[in-house]
Amino acid sequence: MQRVNRISIAAGLVCFCLLIGCKASTTTDEPTSESSEKPKVALIMKSLANEFFSTMAKGAETHHQQSGQYELVVNGIKDERDVSRQVALVQEMVASDVDVIVIAPADSQALIPSLRRAIKAGIIVVNIDNKLDAEMLRKEGLQIPFVGPDNRAGAKQVGDYLATHLAEGDSVAILEGLQTSENGRARKAGFEEAMNEAGVKIVDSQSAEWEMAKANEIASSMLSEHTEIKAILAANDSMALGAVAAAKSVGRSDDLSIVGFDNIAAVRTAIRDGKVLATADQYGDQLAVYGIETGLKLIADENAEVADVETPVDLITKETLDAK
After folding, report:
1. Phi, psi (5° rounding) for residue 234?
2. Whether residue 110 sits in one domain with residue 208
3. Number of domains making up the chain
4. In this structure, are residues 81 and 209 in contact, taking their beta carbons and an 8 Å threshold?
5. DSSP assignment of 232-261, as one string?
6. Is residue 304 part of a domain?
7. Which of 1, 77, 201, 250 is positioned for an S-S bond with 82, CB 3.0–4.6 A?
8. Environment class of residue 314 by beta-carbon count within 10 Å: exposed (0-12), middle (13-18) or buried (19+)?
9. pTM for this one?
10. Measured between alpha carbons, how far is 71 from 285 in angstroms, rounded to an integer?
11. What is the CA radius of gyration of the chain?
């Protein structure tokens, strides 16, 4: 592609300048004559109100400052469910003539048409966090690498650990993410697999759409309707914190086990305080970095294989936190 060749030549010029002592700025608002030599990367995330994504943005900005080899534009939406705004952001980045879009899609299918247009415009697209629908990508004839963890395996680790604190026949409930998001479905499947293997009954499972307030409301209802519930498995940490608030409101703080997924700071505190049992760490501060590095590699070599990259996901408990 001509676009990629121009970027490769420009990247070579930047390296030559650095070798002879030229100093390049790492800021995104540097002069056009200098910044035009660098690839321009757009990071498009979900809700920046969610600590996980604000951590992701900070990690990307730190990497950008340390690298100095590309420009970075960071975007996010206010609401996890605002798919139309995320579609508009993709269109804005295409119009801005970026070279790479690294996206954590709010919906696994709805973003694909706009991303197809971005690819046709010569932009490299990298998918992080929430995997785009594989069947729809095949139908569209698109190859978009997914850079992220195995969400099902991560959720199963959390579920397996929870099972060691339960007895066969105990009852639990699940707070699901958005049902149109692949990572939400994968985490639910991992939780279900762990509970089924342990002989634990799932008596209720509802979507709280990744939101803390909605999780509080739904978990309160679950605990009132099913007083036998011994644990709540939340597909992200925001919902786990909502479940913590619900448990407190119905007087179940001491005998209800709650697990989450993401390892945000507030949940680490809750784990140390005994309010949350466990979570999964998918290294949110590095997740966008992994995607950016993949995009830069594809720019550097237009013949590089477009392949998925599995990133780490680890179980976090009080024991693992105390060991650090």
Report:
1. -105, 135
2. no
3. 2
4. yes
5. EEESSHHHHHHHHHHHHHTT-TTT-EEE-S
6. yes
7. 77
8. middle
9. 0.86
10. 18
11. 21
CA distance 141 to 290: 24
Indicate the residue type of 208: A
Q: How far apart are CA 32 and CA 65, in angstroms?
A: 17
Half-sphere exposure of 108 (CA within 13 A, CB side): 20
Q: What is the pLDDT of residues 64-81, one digit of tens each?
A: 999 999 999 999 999 888
Write out the two tokens for 254: 């001491």
**What CATH number does the domain containing 200 carry?**
3.40.50.2300
Verify that 201 and 104 share a domain, yes or no.
no
What are 214-218's contacts with CB under 8 Å, separation 24+? Answer: 214/239, 214/242, 215/175, 215/239, 215/240, 215/241, 215/242, 215/243, 215/246, 216/242, 216/243, 216/245, 216/246, 216/249, 217/242, 217/246, 218/175, 218/242
For 234-278, the pLDDT digits (tens) are: 999 999 999 999 999 999 999 999 999 999 999 999 999 999 999
Nearest to 10 by CA among 27, 42, 33, 30: 33
